[in-house]
Please model this.
Amino acid sequence: MPDIVGYWTGGSLEHIAWEDNAIAFIAEGSGYYFWFSAAEYDSFHPFCWKLDGDRLTLTSIREFHFQGDDLIKPKKLANNVVCFPSDTIELQVIRTIREGVGGREIPVLIFSQPLFYYTQTEFGFDRSDVLEVDWHRRKIEQLKELGAWA
Model:
């Protein structure tokens, strides 16, 4: 099973049509949670992360909204967080293998509770090189230019 570093998505486990959730862990300890909606905007949550056994800690969490590649509504997570009222999230993560889309067996991360105000708790492994996802790389570059990357 691969390390936690990589791009993990709900779409690897179930066919999606209009929206998807994904979480990315970059090797140097940064990452992001991504919610995509074909009908609305993309929600992009950069963070710093640390894994200690099965305990995952996310810190320095922020939220940004994009339409395409355009940043439309930057804000700091605060009172609008449903499940987590602070800039730190601690949860348990289980690593397992499950059947994904197309019937192939893939590594899966299962979190002890949903992240932020989304309901997804299971993410299937998609790829190890997070920055291969070109439209995400462009968002990260914008946030770095603004000094807003974790």
